[in-house]
Amino acid sequence: MRMAELSSRTGVPVPTIKYYLREGLLPPGERTSPNQALYDESHVRRLKMVRALVEVGKLSIAAVRDVLDAVDAPEKIPFNVLGEMQDRLGPIHPEGSGELWEQADTQVRELLRRRGWLADPDCPPARSLVAALATLAELGRTDLIDLVEVYADAAELVAKVDVTKVVRDQGMDDVVEGAVIGTVLGETMIIALRRLAHQDATARLYGVDRSGGDDE
Amino acid sequence: MRMAELSSRTGVPVPTIKYYLREGLLPPGERTSPNQALYDESHVRRLKMVRALVEVGKLSIAAVRDVLDAVDAPEKIPFNVLGEMQDRLGPIHPEGSGELWEQADTQVRELLRRRGWLADPDCPPARSLVAALATLAELGRTDLIDLVEVYADAAELVAKVDVTKVVRDQGMDDVVEGAVIGTVLGETMIIALRRLAHQDATARLYGVDRSGGDDE
DNA sequence: CAACGTGGATAGTGGAGCTATCTGCTATCG
DNA sequence: CGATAGCAGATAGCTCCACTATCCACGTTG
After folding, report:
1. Residue B92 carries which DSSP code?
2. Percent of all residues in chain A with a pLDDT value above 70, rounded to a whole number
3. How far apart are CA A143 and CA A69, in angstroms?
4. DSSP label at A95?
5. Is the pLDDT of residue B91 over 90?
6. Which of B36, B60, B45, B59 shows the shortest CA–CA distance to B12?
């Protein structure tokens, strides 16, 4: 198919597809002459993937490129791709400094040690956690810090199922792709569900029913 | 204190503070003359809060303003503030269309009904969930859809603890503020922990140890 | 063979989040 | 009292991002 069809099949405007091609998010089509090219199903799929990461996952274009490069890399082991991905999926939280940050850093290392998690205490996710804990302390809400244990329980539960689900009877390609999709869309779903569950928990506590009620 | 001290106490540059004042993220200082103003501890606190939401929570300036307006509103009930907040905390996922979206929409309503959650099936979080599910279907990864049940279990667990923790022996002001902080920073922590747990689960599966090892 | 469509290159757009400059005014120190 | 340094506020500018619009020469198609 040509670009116009690629566009209509995915709902992405032609100029945007050109932009993605320039940015290396989409591999070039098969050229039939110096200024004509054909695209196939793999392009459709890739383009949907890009849109999913950009629209639902709110990734930057640069992050999408990096992630997809990792997906395409030969010799890919899910474990490595996972690391690459996490390094790129950002957001990167700026390093803070001060006693509060050091305490938070210690808390995180301690948490990983205590739970026996085989995880890098210097990777971006760990830094995010440190930043969040330090910020809690800075805001004087140390009372909220022990929530992290509950979150860790939940994360452990979820991650186990995630991994077994993504790995089950699939070729390597599907596993890697599933890891990307699962990580990004999974986060969206988890956050959304937590907020919905907050509505429920708060509604029960205060005796209000927002479900099905009129909007406002 | 004057603006320079407010700046040094929080690490936020003076021009940025001025910008936040213009944008209404920070209430104006108490004026002592047409071109002099004093700021107090409440400004320090507010500024830290703004930075927490912007840097750690990755909220837009507009979202921060909206959230803080809701926090400041009189007659605030945590339940209402929670709703306001969720409407503002975005990201808003664009409405999709087509059969896939309708199926996803049904799935979400079904999920809420089945679990008996008192939550609005048309609120932004529910829309996010629909978008994620529809996108999964669009990408042909319907195998990942039943993960949502596990996520819902985890969300239920987490939300219950969140709410009881935030509400425990606090004045209304602290509850509302805690809800904001807890929602935003909690999300950061949960995502970070899930990624760390993924590292662990993948490392165990493939027999690799990334913890404490050399970087790369 | 003529008109519309195409791929590629280049430049422009609009929004977000600051940042720099300018202009009076003011606190303060000698 | 007066020089000087700092202050608040207004305005304009900057950089980055994600597109979007315009050109152009060539190609496909009726």
Report:
1. P
2. 91
3. 42
4. P
5. no
6. B45
Q: Which of A75-79, B57-61, B105-109, B166-170 has the lowest mean pLDDT?
A: A75-79
B164: Cβ contacts below 8 Å, ≥ 6 apart: none
| Cα Rg of chain B (Å, integer) | 21
pLDDT digits (tens, 9 = 90+) for A148-204: 999 999 999 999 999 999 888 677 777 888 889 999 999 999 999 999 999 999 888
| Rounded Cα–Cα distance for residues B118 and B128 (Å) | 17
Taking the Cβ of residue A205 and every Cβ of chain B, the question of whether any pair is shorter than 8 Å is answered with yes
Q: Helices (DSSP H) in chain A: which residue ranges? A: 3-10, 14-23, 41-51, 61-72, 78-89, 99-115, 124-138, 147-167, 172-206
> pLDDT for B35-66, tens place per residue?
889 999 999 999 999 999 999 999 999 999 99
Name the protein residue, with chain letter, whose CA is nearest the C1' of D20: A15
CA angle, residues B85, B160, A181, in degrees to nearest 5? 70
Over the stretch A34-83, which tens digit does the pLDDT of each residue have?
888 999 999 999 999 999 999 999 999 999 999 998 888 767 666 666 77
Nearest to B179 by CA among B192, B191, B168: B168
* Sign (positive or negative) of CA dihedral B100, A178, B146, B210: negative
Does any CB of chain B come closer than 8 Å to the CB of residue A55? Answer: yes
Mutate to test the interface with A, among B135, B141, B157 (most CBs of A within 10 A): B135
**CB neighbours of A17 closer than 8 A, spacing ≥ 6?**
A3, A6, A7, A26, A47
Structure tokens at A21: 């091609």
- Torsion angle, alpha carbons of B178, B183, B185, B190, to 10: 130
Chain B contact present for A41, CB below 8 A: no
Could you check: is the Cβ of residue B157 within 7 Å of any atom of nucleic acid strand D?
no
Residue A14: how many other CB atoms lie within 10 Å: 13
> Residue A39's closest CA among A28, A48, A50?
A28
What CA–CA distance (Å, rounded) separates A17 from B207? 40
* The 3-state secondary structure of A25-40, one letter per residue: CCCCCEEEECCEEECC
Global confidence as pTM: 0.90
| pLDDT of amino acid B94 | 76
In the block, which residue shows the tokens 């819902």? Answer: B152
**Would you call B50 exposed, middle or buried from its count of C-beta atoms within 10 A (0-12, 13-18, 19+)?**
buried
3-class secondary-structure state, position B215: coil
